[in-house]
Design a protein that fits this description.
By secondary structure, the protein is α/β, with parallel strands linked by helices. Helix content is about 35%, strand content about 15%. Helix 3 packs parallel to helix 5, helix 9 runs parallel beside helix 10 and helix 13 crosses helix 14. The longest helix has 19 residues.
Length: about 650
């Protein structure tokens, strides 16, 4: 009898083959060498693999090539919020820089189908992908780090897994089997991971799939994910999967020294689930001491050279280079056997581009501005995570310190706003749902418009800017949104059933990438390098009521971005002083723009978002253009002058040094 404990024995190789793994047609027997007489047990497995009698349910998608795809799996121990997404995305960037095709996936344990209905206080920002998937904010970290648009294949939840299994059960796809957590639920998890491996980045199959398991090892809701990944490693064979345990090293203030015991116990929970980590990454507020690393390595059966300190850094964007300096990428390449696929020339080019960005980000900047972010989640930074990152990208490219001021609009009024906004050089009003804090946002808009303070409105910030203009310029004192007052006398913003039917985007939300037609000669046209059409990501259900568009524009408001075929307004702005299209100088502004979409979702470290770049450049112009030296400094820096359409106080001379992005 062949050894039924050895995963490389003929018994298990035939068992794996019977699970419909893709055979290599170029090799005899599909790549499986015969070893003497056929074993009755393996014949039984082969004969029942596709029937209800089989206990081996591990579906494999068409086109899957076993051995080609490698998997790097990241678990969190001790507690949540350690930065698994930052770690995994930084590692994915290192591998993509080497010319490898990478594909990340986040496995969330909650029962929601997606993150769309989650309150920011519960789970931070809802990130929207190009295909409209509402997902965890970690997907935004992946997109920014690897500069790659993700899809619904890169995110799943327990709720989605269970709903698909129940749908299949109702269709009779399990052939009368009693559907169980093992093998059917774990099999569905493996199916999704392998489907992603085949899909890759949309252009070629993945060399490496990065799997991030949400939550903490020991949670009930992610237990079946961990089991599925244990099975995946067993089925794929040695050298195919690398397990990384992200843990936390405490330093109690009363003791004044780092303690490794919680990390040891957290890793032990992972090992009890059948997972032997190959790499340990130790989160800490400061570098882990050699003693701590030695203890953790010894306790977890992981070599010391594969036990790394992942302490707090100045910026998350410095982490990839520091991982590379520590040799983390080389160790994992060795574990999964990918050294031969590395493109060294591609890596050198990518490192140079990234290094330039990081050096500009972390160096001392000669200029500083104060930026206000005014919303109802001001005490929860994760609710506006992508906005913070978009601003950080601008800081590097414009060589400017940007100090963020988080201002809660819930208690703001027309009377209190001037005091709260004192000292700011620019303001962002972000998106949101519900009526809380809306009147405070409208007061902020009024202050920015009347005091020529650079303004960027995002989603709800776009809508309240239109409402404020209707109230205080057009004279419609009852102007409002039906979201906040369903019976308002002047519904400037409303939910339109005919638009829902036209868009057909599920429910009443417009989600994901949509085309925006841009008016020639507008501020938006300038910011987007004179492009007449752009694609941005949306997440909203209320829109400008078309019946009021002509009246608003006759009063001086400019809708510079529209839907290609429907009367949906997507960008609004005020004309600049001296603009020949301005109805009057009273409604002009040096930089006042709003977007119904979310521009922050498409900002990338090496490709900052144009609206944010324009806002920060306008803030610099407002602050420094009072003196000839300040104006000369800005106009003499092409990275800044590209984004200044017209310098205040500089004889209103248009800036013609527009560079194509």
């Amino acid at each position: 009898m062949p050894d039924q404990q050895d995963p490389d024995s003929a018994f298990f190789r035939r068992a794996r083959l019977s699970q419909d793994f893709t055979r290599d047609p170029r090799e005899p027997n599909g790549g499986i060498e015969p070893e003497g007489e056929a074993d009755p047990a393996s014949d039984l497995l082969a004969g029942t693999a596709n029937t209800s009698a089989s206990e081996h349910y591990s579906p494999v998608p068409a086109g899957y090539r076993r051995g080609m795809h490698k998997y790097i799996v990241v678990f969190g121990t001790v507690m949540s919020g350690l930065g698994k997404g930052i770690f995994a995305s930084s590692l994915a960037k290192l591998f993509k820089d080497k010319g490898l095709c990478v594909a990340p996936i986040k496995l969330e344990g909650y029962l929601n189908i997606d993150a769309g209905t989650l309150n920011p206080y519960r789970h931070g920002e809802v990130f929207v992908l190009q295909d409209g998937t509402e997902c965890d904010m970690d997907l935004g970290t992946y997109e920014r780090m690897i500069d790659q648009d993700l899809t619904k294949k890169n995110f799943t939840t327990s709720g989605r897994i269970f709903s698909q299994i129940l749908e299949r059960e109702r269709l009779g796809e399990y052939l009368g089997r009693d559907v169980q957590m093992i093998p059917h639920v774990t099999g569905e998890v493996k199916r999704k991971i392998r489907e992603l491996a085949v899909a890759g980045d949309g252009e070629r199959p993945a060399d490496v799939v990065f799997v991030e398991v949400g939550g903490t090892v020991g949670d009930y809701e992610n237990g079946f994910f961990i089991e599925a990944l244990r099975e995946l490693a067993f089925e794929e064979g040695p050298g195919s999967v690398c397990f990384v345990a992200l843990t936390y090293v405490l330093k109690p203030q009363v003791l004044g020294e780092q303690k490794s015991k919680p990390a040891q116990l957290g890793i032990k929970r992972l090992m009890e689930a059948g997972i032997q980590p190959h790499v340990i990454a130790c989160r800490a507020t400061e570098p882990c001491t050699p003693t701590v690393l030695q203890k953790i390595a010894m306790f977890s059966n992981v070599p010391l050279k594969r036990t790394f300190s992942l302490h707090d850094r100045q910026s998350i964007y410095t982490i990839p280079d520091e991982m590379r300096a520590d040799g983390l990428d080389r160790e994992i390449l060795s574990i999964v056997g990918l050294h031969e696929r590395v493109d060294a020339a591609h890596e050198d080019r990518s490192r140079e581009l990234w290094g330039t960005f990081v050096r500009r980000l972390t160096k001392a900047h000669p200029r500083t501005i104060e930026l206000g972010i005014t919303g109802k989640y001001a005490d929860l930074r994760d609710a506006y995570a992508s906005i913070g990152k978009a601003v950080e990208h601008c800081s590097s490219h414009l060589d400017t310190n940007i100090n963020l001021h988080w201002i809660d609009t819930t208690e703001l009024t027309d009377a209190s706003v001037p005091t709260r906004l004192t000292g700011l050089d620019a303001v962002i009003v972000p998106g949101g749902f519900g009526s809380r804090g809306v009147e405070g946002k409208i007061s902020v808009v009024r202050h920015c418009r009347m005091n020529k303070l650079p303004y960027l409105g995002i989603c709800l910030g776009f809508q309240v800017a239109v409402i404020e203009f209707a109230r205080n310029v057009l004279g419609l004192r009852e102007a409002n949104s039906t979201e906040f007052d369903p019976h308002c006398a002047a519904a400037i913003i409303s939910e339109l059933p005919e638009q829902k039917a036209i868009e057909g985007l599920g429910g009443s939300m417009r989600l994901g990438g949509q085309d925006v037609l841009i008016r020639e000669g507008s501020l938006a046209h300038f910011l987007y390098a004179k492009r007449l059409s752009v694609r941005e990501r949306f997440r909203h259900r209320y829109e400008v009521e078309p019946a009021y568009v002509d009246r608003l524009e006759r009063a001086g408001l400019v809708f510079s971005g529209r839907h290609p075929t429907q009367p949906i307004m997507q960008i609004m702005e005020l004309p600049m002083p001296g603009d020949v299209t301005a109805k009057s100088e009273d409604v002009t502004h040096p930089f006042f723009i709003g977007a119904q979409f979310h521009p922050e979702l498409t900002s990338r470290p090496l490709r900052p978002q144009p609206m944010f770049m324009g806002l920060i450049a306008a803030a610099l112009a407002r602050k420094l253009s009072d003196t000839p030296a300040g104006a000369a400094e800005l106009l003499g820096d092409p990275n800044v002058s590209r984004w200044i359409r017209r310098m205040p106080g500089a004889a209103n001379m248009p800036n013609v040094s527009v560079q194509q992005r």
